[in-house]
Amino acid sequence: MTDRNQLLFDRAKAVIPGGVNSPVRAFKAVGGTPRFITRAEGPCFWDANGRRYIDYIGSWGPMILGHGHPEVVEAVQAAVRDGFSFGAPTEREIELAEEIIRLLPSLEMVRLVSSGTEAGMSAIRLARGATGRPKIIKFEGCYHGHADALLVKAGSGLATFGHPTSAGVPPEVVQHTLVLEYNNVEQLEAAFAEHGPQIAALMIEPIAGNMNFVRASVPFMRRCRELCTQHGALLVFDEVMTGFRVALGGAQSLYARLIPGFEPDMTVMGKVIGGGMPLAAFGGKRAVMEQLAPLGPVYQAGTLSGNPVATACGLATLRVIQRPGFFEQLAARTRALVEGLKAEADRAGVPFSADSEGGMFGFFFLPELPQNYAQVMASDAPRFNRFFHGMLERGVYFAPALYEAGFVSAAHSDAEIEATLQAARAVLAAL
Ligand SMILES: *Cc1c(COP(=O)(O)O)cnc(C)c1O
Known about the structure:
This protein is of the alpha/beta class. It is 38% helix and 16% strand. Helix 10 (326-348) packs parallel to helix 13.
């Protein structure tokens, strides 16, 4: 049989660098041929060979309702008929902004953009503009999009400035980016002690989904909040992945439950708020947000920002996830998946740990859940890769890299979870 995925991959490689428009899609970490997707429905998608897969990436998070939810499709179709893009304001942008602010009480204003990268980059510029300070803190293993200042890995030693992780980023561009170890309170305190008056913002993924799935501990998060307040820095939550995914009120609602009065100063959003369309946002308190053009001196703009079709898709998605019981059911399905995987790994005698929150999960070929990037990277990569390919052969599509989170949608039923666990039993037994 001809492998249409391989034919398409070869053709793609001739005209698109690496054959893909975002690196992880190329399967470089796990090897093998990427699947070219032809269509999707509910919890599944189909590749160019006509093979069906249970989809646990959901476009890396946005597809929280599953693919082709009828209410979302209808909203998008209606929006398309009224026009694709105007470059002038629309009522739907207000509706989406109002909806986001209603769901995230830490926000008073939001600005809509088209990608998480744009949102994170703009949030940093705004934080620097609003505070008049140059430096930002980020954590190793957190991803905030590919803006130059954020493509940084840790330098050697405590509280030193980082090195670019990408060619094309001059060291001077990241000289104000301080990279610290996630969940390390001592490093955090040392960084503020040394650079406090210079720090504009601390940016963090509250549940880090770009090093698989690692929670910021409550004491660590409490210290982040205290030190930002004490030193006049803005605490910026990157909830591009966790927002409207781990809970209706995002990860910040989970910390607010555990730390009295807790809220971030700014929030960066994407993925679920676009429901699969290019849409992202950043928001915060009025005094900070009013520093943005056209009101204030911090410039930010976008030809397609607040796009009418994307906002229709996002609004329809946000309306469905607010229905009673939505997150309880999604969380229960996701928990059933990770607990089932853990039970199958135990049965097979394979060291394994797993965690989930709402519709987001992670699993590791490690006996204990990791707390930082170095621990995540110590997991058994060859074993993960064998597991990944074994599952793929059995029609289950997990993220093709061990440092990526997974996602369950509302369209995943007990039947898909059960089928996944049966496949996992066979694959784990052979590991
Ligand atoms: C996906 C992601 C981004 C980047 O969003 P894009 O839309 O891919 O630019 C930023 N931050 C986090 C936490 C993400 O998961």
